[in-house]
Specification:
Elements: H1 2-7, H2 9-26, H3 29-35, H4 39-42, H5 50-53, H6 61-82, H7 84-105, H8 118-131, E1 136-138, E2 145-147, H9 148-162, H10 171-188, H11 192-201
Antiparallel strand pairs: 1-2
Helix pairs in contact: 2-6, 6-7, 6-8, 7-8, 7-10, 8-10, 9-10
Length: 202
């Protein structure tokens, strides 16, 4: 772990802090009440901090495992590629932007809450895809490689479709987190657009 902290300090701290906070919340239900995103309150200027704290807690072990597994595969490489400061900004800004549509969509639904780092993790994955479009992804339990760009397209299409269905999963955060990751990356590194298409055509 010392190696990761030295070479990728921001990704490492986010990784450790998210796991520790999530595990603590599993045994302390009061944390959920304080940290969960509550669009009804946020839209009225209350508990605005939950836009960020909601990314530090997860519903259960499976939710935490899937998010942190995806984060582990992409975040550390991405921080080496773009630098620690830019990675930290990308993660935090995308976390906030991924929740924006949720806040607007559920601003009048007092019963609705959301939690998890999925939006920010999606941003990390899609920023990674811009830099490494020829990478191959392996979906969980499916031993067949999928090109990163094809995966990205399928992910966006599915998230957009699923967000219109009744579900306990916040697919809006997945979709808008991915879009935020793309936008923030391009703002920081405009050259990545030409790099992306060069890698595709080569």
């Amino acid at each position: 772990m010392e190696h990761f902290l030295r070479e990728t300090p921001v990704a490492s701290i986010i990784f450790l802090f998210t796991i520790i906070t999530s595990l603590y919340a599993f045994s302390n239900p009061q944390i959920y009440g304080k940290f969960m995103l509550h669009p009804y309150s946020v839209s009225r200027g209350e508990r605005v901090y939950s836009i960020f704290t909601s990314g530090l807690i997860h519903k259960d072990w499976g939710h935490l495992f899937m998010n942190m597994l995806s984060y582990y595969f992409f975040a550390f490489t991405l921080e080496k590629q773009i630098g620690s400061v830019q990675f930290g900004i990308l993660y935090l800004v995308s976390l906030a932007l991924s929740d924006l549509s949720t806040i607007l969509k559920h601003k009048d639904h007092f019963w609705y809450n959301s939690l998890g780092a999925s939006g920010a993790v999606s941003a990390v994955v899609f920023s990674y895809i811009l830099f490494f479009p020829d990478a191959e992804f392996y979906l969980f339990l499916i031993p067949i490689p999928i090109n990163a760009v094809i995966f990205g397209v399928l992910y966006l299409v599915y998230s957009a479709y699923a967000s219109k269905q009744s579900s306990n999963i916040n697919h809006d955060a997945h979709f808008f987190g991915a879009i935020a990751g793309i936008i923030v990356t391009i703002i920081f590194d405009p050259w990545v657009i030409s790099h992306f298409f060069t890698q595709l055509t080569s």
